Amino acid sequence: MIVTLLSRLLPFFIGLALGTLAPWLWWLDREAGHRFAERQWTQASRVYARPLELYPGLAMSPDDLVLEMQAAGLQPGSPEQIGRFQRRGESLDIHVPGFNFPDTTQPPQRVRVEFSGQQVSSVRAEDRSAAGLLRLPPAELGNLMPLDDRDRTLVALADFPPLLITGIQAVEDRQFNHHRGIDPRGMLRAAWANLRHGQVVQGGSTITQQLVKNLFLEPDRKLLRKFNEAIMAISLERRFGKAEILEAYLNEVYLGQDGATAIHGFGRASEHYFGLPVQALSPDQIALLIGMVRGASWYHPGRNPERARARRDRVLGMFLETGLIDPAMHDRAVARPLEIQSDRQRRARRHGEFLDLVARQLRRDYRDRDLRDTGLRIFTTLAPSAQSHAERALTEALPRVESSPNELQGAIILVEPASGEVRALVGDRRPGQRGFNRALDARRSIGSVIKPFVYLLALAQPDRFNLVSPLQDQPISVPIAGQPDWQPRNYDGQSHGEVPLLDALANSYNQATVHLGLEVGLDDLFRLLRQLGVEPGSDPHPSAYLGALSLTPLQVAQLYQPLAAEGYSTPLRAITQVVDSEGRAIGRYPMRMRPIRDREALALLDYALRHAVTDGTARSLSWRLSSDPGVRGKTGTTNDLRDAWFVGYTRDWLGVVWTGRDDHAAANISGAATAVPVWATLFGQLPLREQPTHWPESIEWYWVDWPTPRLAAEECQGARAVPFIAGSQPTELSPCLDNGRTSRWRRGRR
Amino acid sequence: MNRLPTPFLKTVFIALLACMLAACATPPRAPVEDDTVAERVRAPAPEEPRGLQIRPLRNPAVTELTEAARQAEDEDDLERAALLLERALRIEPRDPELLQHLAEVSFNQQDWEQAESHASRSFDVGPRVGELCRRNWQTIVMAREQMGYRHSAELARERLDACRVEPPPRF
């Protein structure tokens, strides 16, 4: 009777089971396919430094090239491996990794770079032929606005090292190429091994199952999850190819934490643990990462080095077992110590202050939703070697010039004048501090640094002023509404009488400048500052002629950029391009330059600023710089010696240095004594080239003697060659011209 | 009876006359050019004279980028051409050929302002005579016309005419 009951109920139950199972299976199958096809790879947006162009003639020292390479993730080693370089004196053998630039994809290649002094003399490919124009992959500076807490670097299957692809299968799923999603024999084998050992020693999951688990399912150990996982794995394999599944797996697998962010995929893990692109990994490094798949925390090389090393060596053993590496390579790899990037190294590659500027420019120019796309690549203007020199300059030079340790702070901005690109930015003497960014935010009195602009306005009126116009460096009393008269004094407390305009600027005489400023007018000065891209505020006071204006170092750099660029103004920028994950350009910051009016006056001012360096307040540069290719500059010291500035430039570099105390207290510093040494320390490290000046057509040169400006001749005592806007030169002749004639007559025939 | 001085006295008299005449004479002028004041007060500009110059060999990197830019232009990809030329300009920021090339690309992209700026800069750093000068001012003329500045376009046309190559002085 029970049999009859059973025999009648059995079909019912079978039917019920099938009835519920079938739709469930169908649903799982559909979900797997759907979700896999629609998967979103979350990727932080990456910010890159400017890529270094390598070509014969590049002005760079071998040490700086090494700096740039290390910033870009290359390391010393055998150049047979991608991402390694070897230095032999003045030549470097480099295996440059590939990189997808926005305008072209550059494949990996081996080159030899030879130097001659501070210049690249040749760049040759492996076969000794001249290499085409080559760029180093740009250094990664950091991430911007990761969307969620996962980060990865997407890598195509073809770009993974072969050993990684075969190795992961050898360790996790040897039957990967043969099974259909699940590996029943593997599961049975694992079950048997686990049973024998009394604990889990082997996993029976295939790569596909692991992928499904990571992508779609809740992390739990229930049987139901295992069932779902198996079905979905089979579905995946039905719909998608092995290559696609493996690629997804290699980009998805969890490999540790970077603070609050989870690291997914071998691409990002390679960068995080070794500071290398994944193509540059060596066998022992590959083995270490593969070993971590089973437990990124458990096998963490930093926290559990012994366990990590044991696991790595076991993985290497499996490589050997399956014939992926030969015994020699195995022994070499096992002998290598665990070497991962330290936290300090990782942090040191983040240029927080520069990224500040990048973030501000992005926010200014893009709406938030334009940037919400994942995987944006932002290419910036930073030069890692220059940044390194700037940070060191501040750290090394400040202790030499301050009166008590750590009294002063400083900021440096380094710009390429012709393009307006910011090459280095330092906002704190302690590199890596993410605090107050003085370069962008410290509004400090600029002092004498304003003077060139007063003089520029004067020189732009050639009918009234030229470089030798006599100025009165005499006491002056300026009435101010509602306040006692303002009586500016010179730095040395003295008045120097009648001085040529050129010297008044070079020596930074305050009284002469105020006299001149009153002739020029505050409105015009403020209008000029605005025209040059800086808002000086709305409360004009004659003390502005002496720089009683508060500006940031970035604003000062913006003001001086057209001077350094021979009359072509361009807004300073930190970004060149923004590209989305498909490689499409979202934004480009093209080179934009605008000729400012009064370029002749600017050329005269340029001459005066050269004079300030050779003969004026910045003349200490002559012995601080080993070679002077024609530096122009202006020192700036504020009243009460609270702020010390130096702005100096050549044709290739414009550098602004500010030093002072954070608490605005008087610091007994001066532009010449405090800021100039910092500037010189920096510029002593930069490649400086001599460049000819291109004088505007209407500039003519005349011999002029002193003390009254009169036309003279070369042989006259004290005569100087001075440029003038044509027609503005003095008309009076110096008496020495007649003397010259007479003496020649007396000397008779020559 | 009045007799003429003796032959001895005659000789002395003639000698004295000769000496007096000699005293009145001035030494011959040195056979140099007439130094006018205007020439003496002029100081040499510290750079090479304008005009025909031997151009140094072009940086091969710049050549490669310029070629690629030309190719991009042929394919009508002006954005890419501009990008490549900017890369070249980062290597040689004051190459007048590059600047003029970028000016022409900017013009084709209808960026009149930048076309004028780049052409103007090319003129500043270039030979300021000859073929390149003509190309500079031609671009400036066209850009100004596009922007509607008739008068300054006229002025630019005059500068264009002045771009003739001056024959070197020959003696």
Percent range for β-strand residues of chain B: under 5%
Q: Give the second-level CATH assignment, the architecture of the largest domain in chain A.
A: 3-Layer(aba) Sandwich
The radius of gyration computed from the alpha-carbon positions of chain B, rounded to a whole number of angstroms, is 33 Å
Strand order of the largest sheet of chain A: 11-1-15-25-26
Oligomer: heterodimer
* Helix/strand/pairing category of chain A: alpha+beta
What name does the CATH topology of the largest domain in chain A carry?
Beta-lactamase
Low-confidence stretches of chain B: 28-34, 48-54
Structural class of chain B: mainly alpha
Radius of gyration of chain A from the CA trace? 35 Å
Total strand segments of chain A: 33
Helix content of chain A: 25-40%
CATH first level of the largest domain in chain A: which class?
Alpha Beta
Number of helices of chain B: 8
Overall mean pLDDT score of chain A? 87
- End-to-end Cα distance of chain A, whole Å, is 148 Å
- Determine the most extensive contact between two protein chains: A-B, 52 and 43 residues
Total count of domains of chain A:
4
Biggest sheet details of chain B: none
The residue ranges of chain A in which pLDDT falls below 50 over 5 or more consecutive positions are 742-750
**Main β sheet profile of chain A:** 5 strands, mixed
